[in-house]
Amino acid sequence: MMKPEGYAALTHVYDAAVELGRWRRALDAVTAAVDAKAIALLIRRPDPSARDLTMMNSAYLDFTRTAWGMYYGLRLSRLQDPDWDFLSRQPAHQPAADTDIGIPAADLDARADYRMLRRKIGVRRRLGVRLNSDKVWFDAMSIAFDAAKSAVPSDGLRGIVPLLPHLTKSVEIGRTFSQLKARYAAVLTALDRVRVGLAIALPSGEIIVENEEAVRIFGLKDGVWKSADGRLRCEEADQTAEVQIAINEATNTARGEGNQPERLVAVARKSGSERFLVDIAPLSDCKAEIDVGLQGALITIIDPERIPALKIERFTTLYGLTPAEAEVCALILQGMSVNDIADSRNTSPVTAKNQVASILDKTGLSRRTELIRLVIRVLPPVD
């Protein structure tokens, strides 16, 4: 059960998704929601040459701007590397106390970085948690509590758990937007380079921004399209209602009034082709670049009939797929059924079914549609 402070933090969390400068305010809100004193959010790529990106709340940021903070950053912050490495081996969304790493509390308290933060910021015990479970990015948070507390408070642990899916989703959305902004001068122009459908919807379901692939999909009027008033419609009335409910939930979450980080809908098509995969997530236009005070939904539409040609070697290596499973994964991305896969590879349907099940097991998924979404997420199809 999320506390009122948690709901209040959500609007700031989703603001930060499209504007990195908003993370300070978002982490301040999360800090208040879990009765902590300081939070650091680390985003790291597996490439050892890439620089870590660290977002901090006010307590940490103000400290880094002092002479002591500069010394800490240059000399003492590296002492935390084993702590982050420990979190990188933990399951996502399972908070761990700093003492879980195997170092006694007394030894941690005597460590130079702990001593300085205790003196300068007044923090002591920490709670760490990994936000994602993919093998491309490592996103994690360190939450520090008042030095007077001898252990991580149970209220802090309970308070952070419902916020974790939203923090994860915000980081993922922010990463997508940051990559696009870095590569292209204008976001709207960049969206046309993405080879899956992207659209932004108002709470009413009205589409106000769409990229070229979304325009193509809507123009087919085969499963999902825009009505005369610009609202999203599906072939089946119950799916239109389901999509609208998901947009409403996403909007409420972006406003801090809901608790739904995303929803995936497989939309049936009149032509009988493979269903569209429609992913709906919260979105907030914090800088009012599109509309004043906009909260709505980011809609990603994947057409399994036109999955971009992806070099999935990186994906198969990350998830330890065998050569046969890699071939099956590629055929799944082409929208093939189990029987089609068996025919294509000259194997039995039972063998193909077992290989699909093994792929899903290795990626931690339960459905083929989720696999397609994961591949698109790990290997963004940007020209």
CATH-level-2 architecture of the largest domain: 2-Layer Sandwich
| CA-based gyration radius | 22 Å
CATH fold type of the largest domain = Beta-Lactamase
Derived structural class: alpha+beta
Uncertain regions: pLDDT < 50 for 5+ in a row?
288-293
Strand portion, in percent?
15-25%
What is the string of helix and strand elements? Answer: HHEEHHHEHHEEHHHEEHEEHEEEHHHHH
Query: Which overall shape is indicated by the principal axes computed on the Cα atoms?
Result: globular
* Cα-to-Cα separation, first versus last residue: 42 Å
Number of helices: 17
| Fraction of residues in helix | 40-55%
How many domains? 3
Oligomer state of the chains in this structure: single chain
Q: Can you say what the CATH homologous superfamily of the largest domain is?
A: Transcription factor LuxR-like, autoinducer-binding domain
Main β-sheet description: 5 strands, antiparallel
Q: Count the beta strands.
A: 12
- For the record, the CATH class of the largest domain is Alpha Beta
